[in-house]
Amino acid sequence: MSDLINSHKIAIVGGKSAQLAAELGTQPTDLEGCDLALFLVSANDGIVSADLDKWRLAREMYIPSLVIICDLGSSDIDFEDMTAIASKMLDPVVTPYLVLHGDDGAPAALIHLENLQITDYSSGVKEVRAADPEHIELVAEFRAEYLEDIEDAGADSFSAGLLFPALPWVEGTRIGLDQIADFLNEIPIIS
Known about the structure:
Blueprint: H1 2-6, E1 10-13, H2 17-24, E2 36-42, H3 49-60, E3 65-70, H4 79-89, E4 97-101, E5 107-112, E6 117-120, E7 127-130, H5 133-153, E8 166-168, H6 177-184
Parallel strand pairs: 1-2, 2-3, 3-8
Antiparallel strand pairs: 4-5, 5-6, 6-7
């Protein structure tokens, strides 16, 4: 992943930016001149006002931005609730993935709302499989909303800095890292 990540100039804004940069294998850059901005929103602490100012600057510059929801393993607030809060604090976000939890309640997998594939990290090895019928039923309403948002926004709205996907990131696991890399593939490299 680091070859793909290193080919992009990424700004990482938020309390755990150094940790996320290390897990991605990248060195963050300033907001000005970056290809992509990652805005960390903590399920424990939310987002601080200085980061809100950087969000506004990124919007003025039309920088493609991902909202990364972190601290999901240590908070009573779940991913869906935190994306609603992020939508109020920043701009409306879309959720291409939802978090699935293991028997112990910890985040264990992601379900992609577009193709209904589950990426399971519970064994420590990434496994991708089709969603079970109960998962499809569970996410049907979220999926319909996501697909409608994508259709309304247009195909290139993320790379144009007009659509803001919210992704979960569970520190110390692969949950979220592969998905961030997938979004990087949509961003042209600025020379």
